[in-house]
Write a structure and sequence with these properties.
single chain; 310 residues; mainly alpha; globular
C-alpha cells in the first residue's frame, strides 16, 4: 500500500525546487541545440538514452518492468500523451522563444486542478488555493509580458504548440493518477512514457523530413547528454516518485517556478537584464505557492477531540 501524504514536506519541496531549476535550464538547452540537431531527432536520441538508463537502473535495483499488473492501458495512454507533449515542445521551440514556450507549457496545473478532483476528491482545491494558483500564473505572465505585444504568424504557431504541450502535460498527470498507474512503481510509470516517446518520435521525425546524423559538435552532444541523464531520467523519475506520494495539485503549483528559473538563467548565462517586473513576478509566484500549499485547518470536531485528548 502506497503511503500518500496530505501536504508537501521539506524533502518534497527541496526535490521540486531542484527539478524546476533544471527544467528552467532545459528549455534553454533544447533551444540552443535545435539549431544544430533537428528537433524530433534530438528528442529521439534523448528518449532512447533515457530508456536504456532506466532499464539499467531497474535491473540494478530489481524493479520489475514487464510483469502483468493491469497498468498497460493507462501506461500506453500516459506514454502517448507524454510523446505528444515533447513533440509539441521540440517543434514549438523552432518558432517561438524558450521563455514564451515555457509560459504556455506551465498552464498544465490548471488542467490538473480542474479535472483531477473528479477522480481524487481529496485533491479538491479550495477558493483561496485557486486564488493562489491564479496569482502564481499571473506572476509568470507578468515576467514575460514584455514580449507578448508583437507576435508573428510563425510565433503564434509556436505558441499554440506550447499551449498544447501544457495541456498534454496536465493530461499525462491525470492519466497517472486516474488509472492503474497510480499503483505502479515510479520507475515503471516513467518507463511507459519514455519508451513510447522513444518509439513514436523517430517516425514523427521521418514524417517531417528531418535529416538524421551523429556528426554534431561537442556542445550539442553535451546538451543532449545533460537532457538525457538529468532531464529525461533523473528529474522525471523524481517527479514520478513524488506524484505517487504527494498531492498532485500542490506539486503542480511549484512548476510555476520553472519559467522563472528559465528567465533567471537567461540573466546569468545570456546577460539579459534583471528587471523590476521579474522581481514582482518572483514575489507573485512565491506567494501563490504558499497559498496553494497552506494546510487545511482542522474541522471543529477534530479540534475539540484534540483538546479533550490533551
Amino acid at each position: 500500500m502506497i503511503e500518500r501524504k496530505t501536504h508537501l514536506d521539506t524533502r518534497a519541496i527541496s526535490l521540486l525546487v531542484a527539478c524546476c531549476a533544471f527544467w528552467g535550464l532545459q528549455q534553454i538547452l533544447i533551444k540552443t541545440t535545435v539549431v544544430e540537431v533537428p528537433p524530433l531527432w534530438q528528442a529521439s536520441i534523448r528518449m532512447a538514452g533515457a530508456v536504456l538508463l532506466l532499464w539499467l537502473w531497474c535491473r540494478a535495483r530489481g524493479v520489475p518492468l514487464f510483469n502483468r499488473d493491469g497498468t498497460l492501458p493507462g501506461g500506453l495512454l500516459a506514454g502517448l500523451l507524454f510523446a505528444g507533449e515533447f513533440c509539441c515542445i521540440y517543434l514549438g521551440l523552432q518558432d517561438t522563444t524558450a521563455s514564451r514556450l515555457t509560459v504556455f507549457l506551465y498552464t498544465s496545473p490548471f488542467w490538473v486542478a480542474l479535472f483531477l478532483p473528479r477522480w481524487a476528491p481529496s485533491e479538491q482545491l479550495r477558493g483561496w488555493q485557486w486564488v493562489g494558483l491564479a496569482l502564481a500564473f499571473g506572476g509568470v505572465m507578468l515576467a514575460f509580458s514584455e514580449s507578448f505585444g508583437h507576435s508573428s504568424p510563425r510565433q503564434l504557431h509556436g505558441d499554440l504548440l506550447a499551449l498544447a504541450s501544457g495541456m498534454l502535460w496536465g493530461l499525462t498527470t491525470l492519466s497517472i493518477r486516474a488509472t492503474k498507474l497510480a499503483t505502479a512503481s515510479a520507475e515503471k510509470t516513467l518507463f511507459y512514457q519514455v519508451a513510447v516517446t522513444a518509439a513514436v518520435s523517430p517516425f514523427m521525425s521521418l514524417a517531417l523530413g528531418e535529416t538524421w546524423g551523429f556528426s554534431y559538435s561537442a556542445m550539442a552532444w553535451g546538451s543532449i547528454a545533460v537532457q538525457t541523464v538529468i532531464g529525461a531520467f533523473a528529474s522525471y523519475l523524481t517527479w514520478m516518485w513524488l506524484l505517487r506520494h504527494y498531492p498532485a495539485t500542490q506539486m503542480s503549483s511549484f512548476t510555476f517556478l520553472t519559467p522563472l528559473f528559465a528567465l533567471a538563467f537567461g540573466v546569468m548565462l545570456l546577460g539579459e537584464p534583471l528587471t523590476l517586473r521579474l522581481v514582482l513576478a518572483l514575489a507573485g509566484v512565491g506567494l501563490g505557492i504558499v497559498m496553494v500549499n497552506r494546510r487545511k485547518a482542522p474541522a471543529p470536531d477534530v479540534k475539540k477531540a484534540a483538546s479533550k485528548a490533551a
